[in-house]
């Protein structure tokens, strides 16, 4: 059963909690978080964030795609963030997935998209690559504070992966 009606009901029952009169759309902590869309990652308690603190950008893998860069660029250039945190995780659905099989399934449906799934073999090296891409992205005026973390949904631990420049 589709869940959208339940969602509308949920929102209607707590409008007083959801309203944020006067809360600035500019992130209070001046930080943008790019994270995997995985259901097990509850970013706000994990990172000690409250509503209004940060921009949250999520996609499959928490990968630095063109669209993630678009959002991060808007976050910095329009809304004043100066720091980026990338959150990937153990047990990601993209870890060990087959780029070829995914492309073949799309092709079978007559689709040849201009994006890739983003399957990867190793979370740490993938995250380091993302950090390097961000560090080189001139779309982003603020690149002095870019960090990468890997969450383990089984243990709840969050570990840092240092970018190549810090190694
Ligand atoms: Zn994931």
Structure description:
The chain is an alpha/beta fold and 167 residues long. The chain has one domain: Beta-carbonic Anhydrase, Chain A, CATH 3.40.1050. A five-stranded mixed beta sheet has the order 2-1-3-4-5, with helices on one face. The chain is globular and about 50 Å long. Bound molecules: zinc ion. Zinc ion binds next to loops.
CATH topology: Beta-carbonic Anhydrase, Chain A
Bound molecules: zinc ion
Name the average pLDDT.
96
Q: What is the CATH level 1 assignment?
A: Alpha Beta
Question: Strand sequence of the main sheet, in spatial order?
Answer: 2-1-3-4-5
Q: Report the CATH superfamily.
A: Carbonic anhydrase
Radius of gyration based on Cα positions: 18 Å
Count the E strands: 5
Please give the share of residues in helix: 25-40%
User: Strand portion, in percent?
Assistant: 15-25%
Order of helices and strands: HHEHEHEHHEE
Silhouette? globular
Mind describing the biggest β-sheet? 5 strands, mixed
Q: What's the structural domain tally?
A: 1
Q: Tally the helices: what do you get?
A: 6
Features:
single chain, alpha/beta, Beta-carbonic Anhydrase, Chain A, 5-stranded mixed β-sheet, 5 strands, binds zinc ion
Question: SSE layout and pairings?
Answer:
Blueprint: H1 4-13, H2 15-18, E1 31-36, H3 43-47, E2 54-59, H4 66-79, E3 83-89, H5 99-108, H6 123-135, E4 146-151, E5 158-161
Parallel strand pairs: 1-2, 1-3, 3-4
Antiparallel strand pairs: 4-5
This protein binds zinc ion.
Zinc ion binds next to loops.
